[in-house]
Amino acid sequence: MEQITKKMKIDEVIQKYPETMEVFMQHGFHCLGCAASSFENIEDGAVVHGIDVDEFIEELNEIIKK
Q1: The whole model's pTM is what?
Q2: Residue 4 pLDDT more than 80?
Q3: To the nearest 10°, the Cα dihedral for 60, 27, 40, 52?
Q4: DSSP-assigned letters across all residues of 11-62
Q5: CA–CA separation, 4 vs 59, rounded Å?
Q6: Which of the residues 21, 31, 39, 66 has the least number of beta carbons within 10 Å of its own beta carbon?
């Protein structure tokens, strides 16, 4: 199974794994449909939202394992 990485684009992850949308929303990513999500990677978004990127990636990968 593919793992989500911090260099993946936000919209790529949501399209491939829609179940991750809830995790993004819980962490303040409320503009998932905005233009930035198509070119911004998870690491960039986490920095903007003040989120520890490694913990966030771990949480996203846990969701897709279920």
Answers
A1: 0.87
A2: yes
A3: -70
A4: HHHHHH-GGGHHHHHHTT---TTSTHHHH-BHHHHHHHTT--HHHHHHHHHH
A5: 10
A6: 66
